[in-house]
Amino acid sequence: MVTAQELPARIIEHVGDAELARIGEKVLAGQRLTEQDGVTLFEKGSLSFVGALANWVREQKHGNKTYFNRNFHIEPTNVCVFSCKFCSYSKLYAHKEDGWELSIDQMLDIVKKYDGQPVTEVHIVGGVHPKMNLSFFLSLIKEIRAYRPDIHIKGFTPVELDYMFRKAKLSVVEGMQMLKDAGLQSLPGGGAEIFHPEIRQQICADKVDANGWLSIHKAAHNLGMHSNATMLYGHIESYWHRVDHMETLRKLQDETHGFNTFIPLKFRNHDNEMSNVKESNVVEDMRMYAIARLYLDNFPHLKAYWPMLGRQNAQLSLSFGVNDIDGTIDDTTKIYSLAGSEEQNPAMTTAELVALVKQVKRVPVERDTLYNVIRDYSANEFNEQSAPVIDPSLN
Ligand code: V47
Ligand code: SF4
What we know:
- The protein has 16 helices and eleven strands.
- It has 395 residues and is of the alpha/beta class.
- Helix 5 links the parallel strand 2 (71-74) and strand 3 (121-124).
- The two termini are 36 Å apart.
- Iron/sulfur cluster binds next to loops.
């Protein structure tokens, strides 16, 4: 009889490839993978091989715990001065009248919709509108903080921040300090895409580059703030660009320890200038999660963003290294529905989310933004039967 602990070792024994076996041994011994190891896993690792190893690492780190939070999104605008080819917002700058632009009062009205509800986080992210400058966002943050001091404010990608700071003629450190003083508490992971200039130049040439992105996260970490990191994968990049991206993040994390979570974002090809590029399939998506779990040994958490991936695939990812499925997001996030995600109005109640996790025999744990546990749902009050009926055509 083989125990669950012995299983990865047995899988390595039978993998039938010396190079993969050597990488598997390194994982079990807790040794760091090299960039070449990462590329080899992408090129040769079967889904079952990388999946078994990643699941083992996930269970070593978190057991069956699967984190989520109660959050809502505010998108101040969908008008954007930048022209990322994968993004449906980029075309709106020339047609501003078709886009939206929220005032501070309108955004506060969104916050007020959650009066009396136990949400713990607001995630603010959107396009880059020239009228929305640093002082506008400082006022917004202060007003949200004053109205709901109990909510953690996570907001703005380095793309938005770099633009705000340059317009205000402030250094990154000065700008970040002002936002922190106003009440901004952490940064989401967006805007990273693929760091390597060979790809970045082709898909998002005019926005902040890798060094700019990294220096803003580093400044935030040095001020004691935490952040996430994403990677937009499954378009024109090669495997080694993905590894290069993860290597860059792993290096910064060694220095600052400020990242909480890595979030691979699957490229969706609807209604953008890259509609001719085929999307990745589910096997490739799960391999991506698994290899990220193996490579990013210093990232505590790996998140599947369910509005983008779909609910069933998010459930599946919990067996491929993922230990976080974001939150009970309300339907204000449009960037994904426009790009063709399965979830046209992403919203899930806590009961649905808990049941979804329980259906795949993991333990749902509600967390705050910084992964402090709010509630462990291992007790049976929400059970698998209360899970939403999933329409198979959605995934
Ligand atoms: O950087 C835009 C992506 C990101 C497409 O930190 C697309 O908790 C796929 O980063 N196909 C912004 N992706 C969103 C983001 C995020 C999301 C959820 C949670 C967190 C977090 C961060 O959205 C952009 C870009 O990579 N995006 N268009 C598209 N067509
Ligand atoms: Fe603007 Fe961000 Fe879309 Fe690029 S990805 S066009 S920066 S909203």
